[in-house]
Each structure stands twice: as structure tokens, then as C-alpha cells.
Amino acid sequence: MSSIAFRNGRIVLGNEVIDGSLAVEDGLIAGLAVGPSQAGEDLDGDYLIPGLVELHTDHLENHYRPRPGVFWDARAALHAHDVQIAGSGITTVFDAVRIGSDSDMPEMGRHVEALTGAIASGLGDGWLRADHLIHLRCELPSHDVIEQFETHATHPEVRLASMMDHTPGQRQFRSLDDYKRFYGARRSPEELERFIADRLADHARYSEPHRTHIVRRAGELGLSLASHDDATLAHIEEAARDGVAIAEFPTTLEAAAAAHDAGLAILMGAPNVVRGRSHSGNISATDLVRAGLLDILSSDYVPFALMQAAFILPERVEGLSLAAALATVTRNPARAAGLDDRGEIAMGKRADLVRVQVIGGMPVVRGVWRQGKRVS
């Protein structure tokens, strides 16, 4: 592998920003120095930051299913997703793939097969820009979620599983009125009432036994576990009991505080930060930062939101440094996922790097390197 170097940059380290230079050997950071240097690419005062680490993005599924009932070629969808991910400064991405069928997606198993197969193909053929891993989003009330989990959990790129329950009146949609507003446009009032009744019945029948199975099997397979949309103290107590490492998108301050006390890493959506509020009316991610209750940001459904949010937060939260804000999208998610070789600019770490210029208050990605190789 070749050697590369950078000079005249504002290099964001774990706890500070230095003006200096950086050298890369064989894909690893081999040198850091403060002050001027004559060697390497001139960054012209731009930031050099660690490559972003994304734990939960639905973006691949959005490319695969760009319209209701329209399914794109899975490899082409992955290509489009990968280009946007890398161009947004994300060098490690956990592609969230939902498992568990329902009336909207009655044959989810074949779609999961298409998506995981595309990822395996892209990795095997070497055309992916970012480092792609797989996050199984397990919809607990689904009748076939266990069958699909067992089919895909041993895939070599699967590293994370989240336990989800989108039952009306639960977690994300504790209010049935909010649920009806969110989903009502898709169905007539009568159809919506039938749909809600079916979801409640599925929850009562499947959620608890499916959770028990997935917790046990994840432990046997060494997969990290995440909870999803925790709303109450009881939800967090359940997550802690089950060995969950990450609390994704807690919906209340009570749940976030309990997760923090239980030692869970708290993940919230970067679009929540960029927009200044939750799209479903739950707690503000920025408020959790102010309360010291946020560890990780996820782009969720807008890849570039991850970079935007990291640069926005120091402007909105008094006393928060850029290094600390960037840790929520680099070092912290890497550690939570057990990826200790990346997420920070430090000697011996992977040279996953992003050159960023701030123009008119917006961070603009000018170059991306993964393991020292330019990918965008």
C-alpha cells in the first residue's frame, strides 16, 4: 500500500484540534505533527477529521424501494447508496436491513436476501467505497422474524441487531392519535382501524417470545444488541436485563436518563439535530446533548445529516467543542460497535479520513480516504 501525507490542516483529534500535518503508511496513521510542514497534500486550512461511523441508516432500503411496490435492482441500489454514503464522509456504515414481514411487506425474506446478497457481492468484488456492515432491524411482532433472523444472523458482515416494536400505542407512537396521523394517509379510516387491531394482536402473540429468542441467540453469536424507541423506565430495565449495549432513539427524557444510568450508549438521529426537533414529536436530540445524555448520532434517513449535525451542535450547545461533537459520529459509535481500530485520528488507527471545508456555515466534504485510499 502507498504512503500519503497531508499538511496545513486543522486536524481534529480525540479531544482537541491542532494545526499541523499527518502521515499515512499502509493504511494506518503513522505520523502526527503540530506546525508547518513541506510534505504532503496541502489542505489549505481545511479540517481533517476521522471518517464517520454510521450505525443505523435506512438509506439502502430507500434506494431499493424508491416507491411503494417498486423494487430496484439490489446491486444498483447499493451502488447509489454507497456513493452517497462515501460522499457524505461516512467510511464505515452499518446498513440497516429490516427483518420480519407484515401486510405492507409480505415477502420481506426475499428482499432481505437480495440486500444482503448485494452487500456480499459488492464486498467480494471490491467496488464499494465505504466499509459496509449489516444491522438487522428485528420487528418483534412479525410472525416470521425468527425465521429470517436465523437465516441471516450468521452472515459474516452482521455485527448488530436491534429489537423494534412499532405497535400502535407503543414506544415511538405512544399516542394512537399520533400513529393515525402518521399512517392515516395510506389507508381509509376503516382500513386503518383494522390494521391497528391486527398489529395489536400480533404484538400480544409474538413480541415477548421473539425478544427472548433474539436476546439468547445474539448472545450465542456475539452480536451487539440495541433497543429501539425506549419510552419508559420499564423499557430501559428490560434492555439492561437483556444485555443491550445501545439505546436507539429514546423518546423521553426519563428513558434517556435511565439508559445513561444503566451504562447504555444513547443513540439519536442526526436529522433531529438538523431540524431542531423529532419528526414524530418526541424528545429533541439537542436537548439530550445539553443534558449530557447523548453518545452517538445516526444519519437514520439522510446520510449527510451526520456531518451537518456534528458541525451544528457546537453552535447550539454552549461549551461543546467540535472534537466532542465529532466524537458522537466517529469514536463513540466505533467503540459501541466494538470497532476499536477506527473512529479517531491517532497513531496506529485506520487512516479513515475526511477533508472538510466550512462554506457559509455548512461543512462541505472535499475528499474522503478509507484506509489511506481515496474513495470520494
Explained architecture:
There is one protein chain. With 376 residues, the protein is an alpha/beta fold. The chain has a single domain (51-343), classed as Metal-dependent hydrolases (TIM Barrel), CATH 3.20.20. The protein has 13 helices and 16 strands. The chain has helices spanning 59-64, 74-87, 108-125, 145-152, 176-183, 189-221, 233-241, 253-261, 270-275, 285-290, 305-316, 322-327, 331-336; strands at residues 4-12, 17-25, 28-34, 41-42, 47-50, 52-57, 90-99, 131-139, 158-164, 224-228, 246-248, 265-269, 296-298, 353-359, 362-370, 373-374. Strands 1, 2, 3, 4, 5, 14, 15 and 16 form an eight-stranded mixed beta sheet that branches. Strands 6-7-8-9-10-11-12-13 form an eight-stranded parallel beta sheet. Helix 2 (74-87) packs across helix 3 and helix 7 (233-241) packs parallel to helix 8. The longest helix has 33 residues, at 189-221. The mean pLDDT is 93.
Attribute tags:
376 residues; TIM Barrel; 13 helices
CATH architecture: Alpha-Beta Barrel
Q: Termini distance?
A: 18 Å
For the report, how would you describe the main beta sheet? 8 strands, mixed
CATH level 1 class label? Alpha Beta
Q: SSE order, as H and E?
A: EEEEEEHHEHEHEHHEHEHEHHEHHHEEE
Which geometry do the CA atoms define?
globular
The fraction of residues in strands falls at 25-35%
